[in-house]
Amino acid sequence: MKNVTDSFVSLGQWPSAGSFGFNTDILATNLINLGVVLGVLIFFGKGVLSDLLDNRKQRILNTIRNSEELREGAIQQLEKARTRLRKVEIEADQFRVNGYSEIEREKLNLIDSTYKTLEQLENYKNETINFEQQKASNQVRQRVFQQALQGALGTLNSCLNSELHLRTISANIGILGSMKQITD
């Protein structure tokens, strides 16, 4: 440390202006050399450094401008997307409401058609029952008629002689023939 202070003190003892010689004090000569180099750099490098800084400043400003433009574009796209989203949500709600009402409508239509089908089946069942009752009644009538006819024939056969018997059979055959023609 003492050498550093001695160098500064020795700076005050420079040789007088007219003489030329070598300064052997390394610290003093280094400070002078540094001062000269810095002065030359500042004088000649000032324009280059200024240009470099201006170019860097312009690039930063351009980057900021581009970022702002991209940000504005992104904001506009976001607003468009939000608008489309709102529109799609409204349409989805409408489809949902329409779907629910359509489901209710279809449900009511299905219930109505089921009731109509059940009513038709009930009518068919009643018609079938009536038809079967009439058929059974007709069959019973035919059997009663046949039994009555057989009983009458049996009575006639036992009571009649052959000639009367033949006439009665002919008359009954005629009656049955005319009944057959009526039913056909």
From TrEMBL:
InterPro entries (alphabetical): ATP_synth_b/b'su_bac/chlpt (IPR002146)
Positions of transmembrane segments: 26-49
UniProt keyword terms in alphabetical order: ATP synthesis, CF(0), Chloroplast, Coiled coil, Hydrogen ion transport, Ion transport, Membrane, Plastid, Thylakoid, Transmembrane, Transmembrane helix, Transport
CDD domains attached to this UniProt entry: ATP-synt_Fo_b
Subcellular location: Membrane; Plastid, Chloroplast thylakoid membrane
Pfam family, one: ATP-synt_B
Keyword Transmembrane helix attached: yes
Coiled coil: 64-98
Membrane topology, from the record: Single-pass membrane protein
Single GO MF descriptor: proton-transporting ATP synthase activity, rotational mechanism
Keyword Transmembrane helix: yes
GO cellular component: chloroplast thylakoid membrane; proton-transporting ATP synthase complex
Superkingdom of this protein's organism: Eukaryota
Subunit structure: F-type ATPases have 2 components, F(1) - the catalytic core - and F(0) - the membrane proton channel. F(1) has five subunits: alpha(3), beta(3), gamma(1), delta(1), epsilon(1). F(0) has four main subunits: a(1), b(1), b'(1) and c(10-14). The alpha and beta chains form an alternating ring which encloses part of the gamma chain. F(1) is attached to F(0) by a central stalk formed by the gamma and epsilon chains, while a peripheral stalk is formed by the delta, b and b' chains.
Something else known: In plastids the F-type ATPase is also known as CF(1)CF(0).
Function, in words: Component of the F(0) channel, it forms part of the peripheral stalk, linking F(1) to F(0). F(1)F(0) ATP synthase produces ATP from ADP in the presence of a proton or sodium gradient. F-type ATPases consist of two structural domains, F(1) containing the extramembraneous catalytic core and F(0) containing the membrane proton channel, linked together by a central stalk and a peripheral stalk. During catalysis, ATP synthesis in the catalytic domain of F(1) is coupled via a rotary mechanism of the central stalk subunits to proton translocation.
Family annotation (PANTHER family): ATP SYNTHASE SUBUNIT B, CHLOROPLASTIC (PTHR34264)
Family: Belongs to the ATPase B chain family.
Entry protein name: ATP synthase subunit b, chloroplastic
Organism: Soliva sessilis
Gene: atpF
